[in-house]
């Protein structure tokens, strides 16, 4: 006997057992009589039994069907017990682990935490530093997500889903003499070195150089607050995204035609992308960065 049974065919068999009439079964299941006959024919072959015998009173089940109808009903009942994986933030008591760079945490860490606290008050949140080790742990299957910039070097096993965009801007202290991006070429730039993103090269500087703006870094630091402090006390300028210009500074935008956008992505194992927890975290990240732009 072929045990590779189609659940739809079993549903037809059960309904046929109840109604004993092909036309009535077709009406009940929203199918044609021809389709019902095909379902039953396939089952007859698979189960090696006639299943139903036509009589003047209708179709009578064979002894095989009578002996096994409870098993068929049990299969249908078991299928009905299979439910989508659920997730309710308000009752969740597990851990939430998010990796991000220092700039992200400085700009959005408190806003993200307050949003998580409001929606999942019983969860434990861990906001951790994104670096090469964290990158490798996620690749190896750690149950965590990362919020960072799109990274073309990550393998296909890692899903990178965009949750927001930002435009590149320069920033200087409020009384800095530079008035536009062209005049900035006369001044040194201090760069934020972001682990796991620009450890070995600066993608933004390369892109700016490619469109005609030649900037040579004067200093590179690992904490965004240091960039802010240096810019406030010197003629240096920094690079950031719109909405992230620190207090006491003003932004200098690239010309509209040369605007450079940065994609903010949530990364996790592709196999975990549809996990309800991760889907919820993606929504929260998306709302957090959108709120910060207002």
From TrEMBL:
<keyword id="KW-0804">Transcription</keyword>
<dbReference type="InterPro" id="IPR005119">
    <property type="entry name" value="LysR_subst-bd"/>
</dbReference>
<dbReference type="GO" id="GO:0003700">
    <property type="term" value="F:DNA-binding transcription factor activity"/>
</dbReference>
<dbReference type="Pfam" id="PF03466">
    <property type="entry name" value="LysR_substrate"/>
</dbReference>
<dbReference type="InterPro" id="IPR050389">
    <property type="entry name" value="LysR-type_TF"/>
</dbReference>
<keyword id="KW-0238">DNA-binding</keyword>
<dbReference type="InterPro" id="IPR036390">
    <property type="entry name" value="WH_DNA-bd_sf"/>
</dbReference>
<dbReference type="Pfam" id="PF00126">
    <property type="entry name" value="HTH_1"/>
</dbReference>
<comment type="similarity">
    <text>Belongs to the LysR transcriptional regulatory family.</text>
</comment>
<feature type="domain" description="HTH lysR-type">
    <location>
        <begin position="5"/>
        <end position="62"/>
    </location>
</feature>
<dbReference type="InterPro" id="IPR036388">
    <property type="entry name" value="WH-like_DNA-bd_sf"/>
</dbReference>
<dbReference type="GO" id="GO:0003677">
    <property type="term" value="F:DNA binding"/>
</dbReference>
<protein>
    <submittedName>
        <fullName>LysR family transcriptional regulator</fullName>
    </submittedName>
</protein>
<dbReference type="InterPro" id="IPR000847">
    <property type="entry name" value="LysR_HTH_N"/>
</dbReference>
<keyword id="KW-0805">Transcription regulation</keyword>
């Amino acid at each position: 006997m072929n045990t590779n049974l189609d659940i739809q065919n079993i549903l037809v068999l059960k309904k046929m057992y109840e109604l004993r009439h092909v036309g009535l079964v077709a009406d009940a299941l929203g199918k044609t009589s021809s389709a019902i006959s095909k379902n039953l024919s396939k089952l007859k072959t698979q189960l090696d039994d006639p299943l139903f015998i036509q009589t003047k009173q209708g179709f009578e089940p064979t002894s095989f069907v009578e002996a096994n109808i409870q098993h068929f009903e049990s299969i249908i009942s078991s299928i009905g017990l299979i439910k989508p994986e659920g997730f309710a933030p308000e009752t969740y008591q597990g851990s939430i682990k998010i990796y991000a760079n220092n700039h992200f945490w400085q700009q959005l860490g408190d806003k993200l935490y307050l949003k998580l606290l409001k929606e999942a008050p019983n969860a434990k949140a861990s906001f951790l530093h994104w670096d090469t080790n964290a990158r490798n742990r996620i690749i190896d299957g750690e149950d965590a997500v990362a919020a960072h910039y799109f990274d073309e070097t990550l393998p296909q096993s890692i899903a990178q889903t965009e949750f927001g965009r930002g435009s590149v801007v320069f920033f200087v202290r409020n009384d800095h003499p530079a008035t536009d991006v062209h005049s900035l070429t006369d001044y040194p730039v201090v760069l934020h070195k972001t682990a796991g993103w620009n450890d070995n090269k600066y993608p933004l500087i390369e892109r700016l150089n490619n469109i005609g703006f030649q900037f040579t870094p004067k200093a590179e630091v690992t904490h965004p607050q240091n960039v802010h402090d240096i810019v406030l006390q010197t003629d240096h300028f920094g690079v950031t995204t719109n909405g992230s210009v620190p207090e006491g500074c003003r932004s200098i935008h690239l010309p509209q035609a040369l605007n450079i956008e940065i994609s903010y992505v949530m990364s996790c194992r592709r196999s975990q992308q549809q996990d309800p927890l991760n889907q919820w975290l993606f929504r929260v990240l998306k709302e957090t960065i959108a709120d910060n732009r207002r």
